[in-house]
Amino acid sequence: MRFWRNTFAGPLLFFLLALVLDTAVTALGTDYFSAIEREGNPIVRWLWEIFGEARILLPLLWAGVISGAAYFLLKRVKPFLGVWLLYGIGVGHFLGFLSWTPLQTFVYSGNSSSVFYNLGAQVIISAVLGFLFAKIQLRISEKI
């Protein structure tokens, strides 16, 4: 029960697990990040081109930036915003993980013209589910 009192631990673990799953399946799907054209997210493809061989470090950098931003929001602004950020981006990475699995038709339709539409839908789904998860967790932590 003590775990749920720490409003940062649960969402952080979820975010990191989803990031690891997304990164691992993306690495396999792109021949360990060498086939950039197989990645559906144009921003990630652009970052891979910029970082070159150092692109393997991007997930670590991303984890640090998001964790730091969430911690700042949690401690300095409003706890709900930090929890929402972690859950929202965690759901986005989990959907990214699903996009490489046989469940990909749920996440992506497969044609390149729909990538931006699907990424937009993924962001909306992530924000809504992140909001709901954050609300539920904060309610549980208040009652414990």
Automatic annotation (TrEMBL):
Domain of life: Bacteria
Name of the protein in its database record: DUF5658 domain-containing protein
Keywords attached to this entry: Membrane, Transmembrane, Transmembrane helix
Keyword check for Transmembrane helix: yes
Source organism phylogeny: Bacteria, Candidatus Wildermuthiibacteriota
Organism from which the protein derives: Candidatus Wildermuthbacteria bacterium RIFCSPLOWO2_02_FULL_47_9c
Transmembrane segments: 56-74, 81-103, 115-134
